[in-house]
Design goal:
Elements lengths: L3 H22 L12 H4 L1 H10 L2 E2 L1 H4 L7 E2 L8 E2 L5 H4 L13 E2 L1 H4 L11 E2 L9 H6 L10 E2 L17 E2 L9 H6 L5 H7 L17 E2 L8 E2 L1 H5 L6 E4 L2 E4 L3 H8 L7 E2 L1 H4 L11 E2 L9 H6 L13 E2 L1 H4 L11 E2 L9 H4 L12 E2 L1 H4 L11 E2 L9 H6 L3 H4 L6 E2 L1 H5 L10 E2 L11 H4 L3 H6 L7 H4 L11 E2 L9 H8 L1 H9 L2 E2 L1 H4 L22 H8 L11 E2 L17 E2 L9 H8 L4 H6 L10 H4 L4 E2 L11 H4 L13
Antiparallel strand pairs: 1-5, 2-3, 4-7, 6-8, 9-13, 10-11, 12-15, 14-17, 16-19, 18-20, 21-23, 22-24
Protein name: Doubled CXXCH motif domain-containing protein
Length: 646
């Protein structure tokens, strides 16, 4: 019993020692490495941020690049987590509510925050790219076009003195109602009354005044109703209580000065006496006191004009919103309120369009709308249809040429105006220029290639259409017919010879003159593509077999030697020989004692030279055929031939 506690102590000590042993074998955990941030690897970026300005974007100041960027890109790079403005609204949550306002600054509406703001650092507060006034003027340049400037613009806040930069419940992003805003500075009511002809005019200041600049000290708009200048307000207004009100017979007052006009065509608002649908009563930035530019005023009713941007071709006055260049605003003696007859009004701008010698019939008859639309078109040149279809609607015979084999590229694409002037021209068929200058508009490289060569007469004279059809043909390169037929129109003697002779050169037989000749020009004789000998050998390879390594017939070495024995087009003799075979060899090789001796004292027959000799060359100067009859090869003719007397 006394040993029991000791035994327990021993067991405890053993267990403790075992525990120490185990723990000593386990390695201590290494301290975790500190994760690097973006700046650690991109120190140059930090320098750039500091250089660009003292004002830092909050995530940049906190080195929180991941606030806006994804750290890993599929192809490398730090990509934004989302597109502006959603990305910006992650932090600028209070600005989301502003989108409920009626009026939103155009860049913000498009989500393009970075038009005005820098995204890392800036020299200006609120990370603006420039001081606010200069930044506004980068888009709104027109607000400083004037001799006199509103003093509010000189305030330290600049534009932001009256406007808010993002959204507002007031038009033009004003902080409050325009007149209330004006009266917050112009508080002296007595002075205002005196300046306004002793009239309590406390509302709608900007109906007469430009809030930014003007050409007089009063900052009046450029166009002001004469009654306003004269202070004759009560011709149109009455006092109702302490405020100005409009007379019930206001339109009749207008008609006292602006007499009713008459005409065959009357603008509906004018007929209905709704003057103020188009005009301002006091002052305007636009001629005739229009509420806006003519185009924008017209769009109020003619809403189809709002879609003009989708069209390929827009009439210049329409593009400039200058409807009044063609139309009258009230009445006209011509349809559609035109200023003149539609057959003449076009020429008020396009007066030189018909001043050339040859005139297109529709243009000559002043019938512009036969081909053109007056406002816009999905086709270039305000055309009523595709150029090709429009031309073919009259030129039906020409349309059939589309079915031919070879089409001229402009004709194939339907670009008739590439070659023809659709109105008038000094050249026949309304061509925009004469040939060959017209052809060289596209084929100028072709002209340069032939500039230093001798030229074929039709090409030299620029008579391209002698051989080619301008639109299409059933033959390659739009030539007017089979090539030989075209050639024989000039080379008619050669044509007759070819048709009458029994033996014809195969390229000629196939109507392929261009196999040997360059039809435009070359420095070789007869406009051949190569020198005559080389050209012949390019097909007749066998005749040049011995020329390099053995013996060639001496005439071959002469330039153009082939024609000494052959006709090149046609002949009444086989092999296109220019004489009977018994007449050719003896021209050079007279049958004399020396020749008879060389033929084993046998007189050779003039007609049989080529039975033994190759007329072009051979292994030696005898030019014998390679395969010979054994007795003949030994020089023994007597087994077959009896000796002939000299």
């Amino acid at each position: 019993m006394t040993n029991h506690p000791n035994r327990l102590l021993k067991y405890f000590i053993l267990i403790f020692l075992f525990f120490l042993l185990i723990t000593s074998c386990v390695s201590k955990p290494s301290p975790q490495k500190t994760r690097k941030n973006c700046i650690d690897c991109h120190p140059d970026f930090q320098k750039t941020v500091k250089k660009n300005g003292p004002f830092l974007h909050k995530p940049v100041a906190e080195k929180n690049c991941k606030g806006c960027h994804r750290p890993h890109g599929v192809i490398g790079g730090a990509f934004l987590k989302d597109k502006p403005p959603r990305l910006c609204f992650n932090c600028h949550k209070k600005n989301v509510k502003d989108f409920q306002n009626k009026f939103i600054h155009a860049p913000l509406k498009k989500g393009d925050c970075f038009i005005c703001h820098e995204y890392h650092s800036s020299q200006n507060k609120l990370l603006l790219k420039e001081p606010s006034f200069q930044l506004c003027l980068s888009c709104h340049k027109e607000i400083i076009k004037g001799k006199f400037k509103h003093k509010a613009l000189d305030n330290n806040q600049g534009c932001l003195y009256c406007h808010v930069p993002h959204t507002a419940s007031n038009k033009t992003l004003l902080k409050e109602n325009a007149s209330s805003l004006c009266l917050s500075c112009h508080k002296n009511k007595e002075k205002l009354k005196k300046l306004h002809f002793e009239i309590n005019f406390n509302d709608n200041c900007i109906s007469c005044h430009n809030p930014h600049v003007g050409n007089d000290k009063r900052l009046l708009k450029p166009y002001v109703h004469p009654l306003v200048i004269q202070g004759e307000c009560f011709k149109c207004h009455i006092y109702k209580g302490n405020n100005l009100d409009i007379r019930k017979d206001l339109i009749n007052q207008c008609l006292e000065c602006h007499k009713i006009q008459s005409g065959r065509s009357i603008h509906k608002p004018y007929f209905d006496k709704k003057c103020f649908e188009c005009h301002e009563p006091h002052a305007s930035y636009n001629l005739f006191l229009l509420k806006n530019t003519p185009g924008k005023v017209c769009i109020q009713c003619h809403s189809d004009f709002s879609k003009i941007k989708q069209y390929k071709s827009i009439h210049d006055p329409v593009k400039k919103e200058n409807c009044l260049s063609c139309h009258k605003g009230h009445v006209s003696n011509y349809k559609f309120l035109l200023k003149n007859d539609d057959k003449k009004i076009c020429f008020s701008c396009h007066e030189k369009i018909n001043d050339k010698r040859f005139k297109h019939p529709p243009s000559q008859k002043d019938n512009c709308l036969k081909c053109h639309r007056p406002h816009w078109s999905k086709f270039e040149g305000l055309l009523t249809n595709e150029q090709k279809k429009l031309c073919f609607s009259c030129h039906k015979k020409t349309s059939l040429e589309e079915d031919l084999f070879s089409l001229h590229m402009p004709f194939q694409k339907g670009n008739c105006a590439d070659c023809h002037n659709p109105h008038s021209s000094n050249f026949s068929k309304l061509l925009v220029n004469n040939t060959p200058q017209l052809c060289w508009n596209c084929h100028d490289n072709f002209r340069k290639n032939y500039s230093k060569l001798k030229k074929h007469k039709p090409y030299k004279e620029g008579n391209c259409l002698l051989c080619h059809n301008a639109h299409s043909s059933d033959y390659a390169y739009q030539i007017n017919g089979p090539l030989s037929n075209i050639c024989f129109e000039c080379h008619n003697n050669l044509g007759r010879k070819i048709k009458s002779e029994p033996f014809v050169h195969p390229p000629v037989q196939k109507d392929n003159c261009s196999k040997c000749h360059d039809v435009h020009g070359t420095n070789n004789v007869w406009f051949l593509k190569q020198s005559l000998n080389n050209l012949c050998v390019s097909c007749h390879i066998d005749i040049s077999k011995y020329w390099q390594d053995a013996f060639s017939h001496p005439p071959i070495k002469k330039e153009n030697s082939c024609v000494e024995c052959h006709f090149v087009h046609a002949s009444k003799y086989n092999y296109l020989l220019n004489k009977a075979s018994d007449k050719i060899c003896i021209v050079c090789h007279k049958i004399d004692e020396k020749m008879i001796k060389n033929h084993n004292n046998i007189r050779p027959s003039e007609s049989n030279c080529t039975t033994c000799h190759n007329p072009h060359g051979g292994e030696n100067n005898k030019m014998l055929w390679l395969n010979q009859h054994p007795p003949f090869a030994k020089g023994d003719c007597t087994p077959c031939h009896e000796g002939r007397s000299k």
